[in-house]
Write a structure and sequence with these properties.
This protein is mainly α and about 170 residues long. Helix content is about 75%, strand content about 0%. It folds into 2 domains: about 60 residues, Orthogonal Bundle (434 Repressor (Amino-terminal Domain)), CATH 1.10.260.40; about 80 residues, no CATH class.
């Protein structure tokens, strides 16, 4: 039975004895002996043979795998339905959280821009003769400069993200 199964499954896969032997790292004569029933593969080779032929070891050995009962299929389908519902709920929660994150990013960007506009770059009037004031003024100017260049990109990205993750009906 094993020899016939190996031969028929090898042929159905369109493999020659040589190609199967190369995939299993054995010589062609070994495959020939298996197909003639003169020898059998060891356990490790049997597992590898089943993988290469795309079947299970029990099918390769000739055992018939019984069909699952209708009640078993119904129970399985019910479990799958529950899992699908849980996954769908998780996806909705993640989308809502992401949407709130994008909304918060938009709000924070707009608020920071409003604060910077209200301050009107106060460091421009500072006395830069004092080293501490100079360092603080340069740091504030660098932060403002970076924000002005990055904020539009962040704002556009957050707005696009906010609208792209909305719940679809």
């Amino acid at each position: 039975m094993l020899s016939e199964n190996i031969k028929s499954m090898r042929r159905s896969r369109g493999l020659s004895q040589q190609e199967l032997a190369v995939k299993l790292d054995v010589v062609r004569q070994t495959v020939s002996k298996w197909e003639q029933g003169l020898s059998v593969p060891d356990a490790d080779l049997l597992i590898s043979l089943a993988e290469v032929l795309g079947t299970s070891v029990s099918t390769l050995l000739g055992e018939r795998v019984g069909e699952p009962e209708a009640d078993g299929m119904k129970a399985l389908s019910e479990k799958l339905e529950v899992v699908n519902l849980q996954l769908a709920r998780g996806k909705v929660r993640r989308r809502r959280a992401l949407r709130w994150l994008f909304a918060a990013l938009v709000a924070a960007t707009v608020m920071l821009y409003a604060i910077l506009c209200a301050l009107e770059s106060p460091y421009l009037g500072w006395d830069y003769g004092d080293p501490e004031t100079a360092v603080l003024g340069v740091g504030f100017h660098a932060a403002e400069w970076l924000f002005v260049r990055v904020a539009p990109i962040v704002l556009i990205g957050a707005l696009a993200g906010f609208f792209l993750v909305r719940e679809k009906e």
